[in-house]
Design a protein that fits this description.
The chain has 270 residues and is of the alpha+beta class. It contains ten helices and twelve strands.
């Protein structure tokens, strides 16, 4: 690789000193303080993931993984020419406790931290940087929001409202990978029968071969219940006790405003 300063976007705020200061914050922070606070890391990770998916809506998906015990959103790209029928390749592990590990040439390079991104003059420069490292094409303009990008945008927008609140809201995958094996969160699907019915529809591109990996759940920890369920592949949304709806149709009705859409569909954040 080139020298680290050469890899970073050209900005007076983005230099080695800033990166080192961010590392010190991450290492020094306790689990309930600083950038280790779950609601902060969760919101930042979803913002970053949604920006990547927004720029590559037909190629990327987001899954919940726990490599080495860390709590990560893992952004994966579909490689149709790999394996007999294609496979998912992880390009970025967005660790909610402090780091982004970017897969470069099949190796994970932990080189970014949330404090340096927060302090950046243009945080989206880092999205483009990860694209470069992950060898993704960088679109000249941001593609229009579609069914495969609307769910992550809505989750990120909702969590942005909770950034400095107590740890009430939790976003969980319908399937996760921890302790060496993938598993399904049946207890979440039991609360949303409509989503449970649709998880029977298998797709050759399901991560770990599990259709449940397509789903994400917004959980209200205060009342221990699912508030919203979404399918990240098509933008279908379920509220408890309600029929499924299309986030894209609701997005159009909201004059293509994600902020207005979240206010109309998601629960009050506080």
């Amino acid at each position: 690789m080139d020298d680290e300063n050469d890899q970073r976007p050209d900005s007076p705020l983005l230099d080695m000193a800033l990166h080192v200061a961010g590392e010190e914050l991450v290492v020094a922070a306790g689990h309930n303080s600083g950038f280790r606070r779950h609601e902060v890391g969760q919101a930042l990770a979803w913002w970053f993931a949604s920006e990547l998916v927004r720029r590559h809506p037909h190629r990327l998906r987001v899954f919940e993984t726990h490599p080495h015990g860390y709590d990560c959103l893992t952004v994966c790209t579909w490689e149709p020419d790999q394996a007999p029928d294609g496979e998912w390749r992880a390009i970025a592990y967005l660790n909610k406790t402090g780091h982004i590990a970017v897969s470069v040439g099949g190796e994970d390079a932990v080189d970014l931290n949330w404090p340096e991104i927060l302090a950046a003059e243009q945080p989206r420069d880092y999205v483009r940087l990860v694209e470069k490292w992950a060898r993704l094409p960088s679109p000249a303009t941001t593609p229009p929001t579609v069914g495969s990008s609307i769910a992550s945008r809505c989750i990120a927008a909702f969590l942005a409202r909770t950034l400095y609140l107590s740890d009430r809201w939790l976003v969980l995958g319908g399937a996760t990978h921890a302790a060496g094996d993938p598993s399904v969160r049946d207890q979440l699907f039991e609360q949303v029968p409509g989503a449970a019915a649709e998880r029977r529809d298998r797709d050759g591109a399901d991560f770990w071969g599990l259709p449940e990996s397509r789903f994400w759940f917004l959980v209200d920890r205060t009342h221990d219940r699912v508030a919203v369920a979404v399918d990240q592949t098509n933008g279908r949304v379920w509220l408890p006790g309600a029929r499924p709806e299309s986030l894209m149709e609701l997005y159009e009705a909201a004059e293509r405003s994600v902020d207005r859409l979240v206010s109309n569909v998601f629960p009050a954040a506080f």
